[in-house]
């Protein structure tokens, strides 16, 4: 383990010019079988709070709390953020505050201005929608924006692989169907289990995509 993490060096090459050799002070080699174990060890002291749920997935992390008192919710979130900030400072973990936002999930409309949260000495804006793990979450959880995003992403991929699946392609129909299943269908089915609360009009947008795509014979 010590050899795996210690005495690691790096060098940068631009065209035919090599930089001087530098020492890697933190991090680990990528794509190693030890990576998941090391990740769990590293996050073993991540701040815990009985009122807060921590969602950790590689470098995409989120915290969530719920309640009927918005002031108490904001106070709880701020306390957890302060604890996370202390830990990140202690272990020299860099946080991209430009990609760090806050979003309220609630029914109805409210004219109350929410107190701003702070993190790493910067104010965090309250947003109406956020993107997390490739999924667009709106404050009303209506999934309308994600349906639009998924549709755009789907057709973008279709245009990319159209020479392979179009009418003039010499690939067999079985291979074209295989490409659809491997490249296009995952875009439509990603996170599909949480669509139970999605309006039929938004689900219909994805259902149409699976029926109108022509695969040349």
UniProtKB/TrEMBL annotation:
Ribonucleoprotein is among the record's keywords: no
UniProt KW keywords: Nucleotidyltransferase, RNA-directed DNA polymerase, Transferase
Alphabetized PROSITE patterns for the sequence: RT_POL
Alphabetized Pfam families for the sequence: RVT_1
Residue ranges crossing the lipid bilayer per the database entry: none
Residues in Reverse transcriptase domain copies: 1-137
Entry annotated with the keyword Nucleotidyltransferase: yes
Gene Ontology MF terms: RNA-directed DNA polymerase activity
InterPro entries in alphabetical order: RdDP_mobile_element, RT_dom
Designated name of the protein: RNA-directed DNA polymerase from mobile element jockey
Species this chain originates from: Araneus ventricosus
């Amino acid at each position: 383990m010590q050899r795996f993490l210690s005495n690691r060096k790096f060098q940068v090459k631009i065209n035919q010019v090599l930089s001087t050799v530098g020492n890697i002070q933190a991090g680990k080699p990528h794509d190693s079988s030890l990576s998941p174990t090391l990740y769990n060890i590293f996050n073993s002291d991540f701040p815990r709070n009985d009122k807060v749920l921590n969602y950790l997935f590689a470098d995409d992390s989120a915290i969530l709390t719920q309640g009927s008192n918005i002031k108490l919710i904001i106070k709880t979130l701020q306390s957890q953020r302060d604890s996370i900030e202390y830990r990140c400072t202690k272990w020299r973990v860099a946080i991209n505050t430009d990609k760090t936002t806050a979003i309220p999930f609630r029914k109805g409309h409210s004219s109350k201005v929410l107190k701003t949260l702070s993190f790493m000495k910067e104010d965090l804006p309250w947003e109406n929608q956020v993107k997390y793990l490739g999924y667009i979450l709106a404050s009303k959880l209506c999934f309308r924006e994600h349906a639009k995003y998924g549709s755009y992403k789907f057709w973008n991929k279709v245009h990319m692989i159209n020479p392979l699946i179009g009418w003039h392609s010499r690939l067999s129909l079985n291979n074209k169907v295989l490409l659809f299943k491997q490249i296009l269908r995952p875009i439509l089915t990603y996170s599909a289990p949480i669509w139970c609360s999605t309006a039929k009009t938004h689900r219909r947008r994805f259902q149409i995509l699976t029926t109108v795509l022509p695969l040349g014979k």
